Amino acid sequence: MTLKGQTIFLRALEPEDLEFVYAIENDETIWEVSNTQTPYSKFLIRQYLENAHQDIYEAKQLRLAICKNQTSEAIGLIDLFDFDAKNKRAGVGIIIQNEANRNSGFGKEALSLVIAYSFKQLQLHQLYANIQAENTASISLFTTFGFQKIGTKKDWNLHNGKFSDEALFQLINQK
Length: 175
What we know:
28% of the residues lie in helices and 37% in strands. It has helices at 18-25, 31-34, 42-50, 56-59, 106-120, 136-144; strands at 2-4, 8-12, 62-68, 74-84, 89-96, 126-132, 148-159, 162-172. Strand 4 (74-84) and strand 5 form a beta hairpin. Helix 1 packs across helix 3. The longest helix is centred in the middle third of the chain and has 15 residues, at 106-120.
């Protein structure tokens, strides 16, 4: 599966993505936003990639690589998780690996493609995102597409000995 935009495309993960996924999953600077606490081995990531062929109805999640159109270089990941076909909803999360590629519109385009895919192909009624309250860049990105803050989970995450709030954002398909 490939979803194509103006500057990026989204594609399913391949076995060749091992080093890329390994680098993201083991980057301690983004563990706070990904809610990760321990490193992942290449063995575990290889197993995950071997099972990445499962469809979203089977795996209850879908992870796509965000790639630049010009070079096909993978620059990030966008996930649909906690997929619930009965209630027609899923969570969405996004990470752009390199700071040099952030604030360049790649995340915005990727989120736009995933929203359209979720509502048109998957027939979802709603998407939600859990965002650290102080992550203004992500809040700005999601609210650009109409995600609304529906609540705050107080002292939800512990990072470096300090608790922080996590906001819950929701986008309901009005069609």
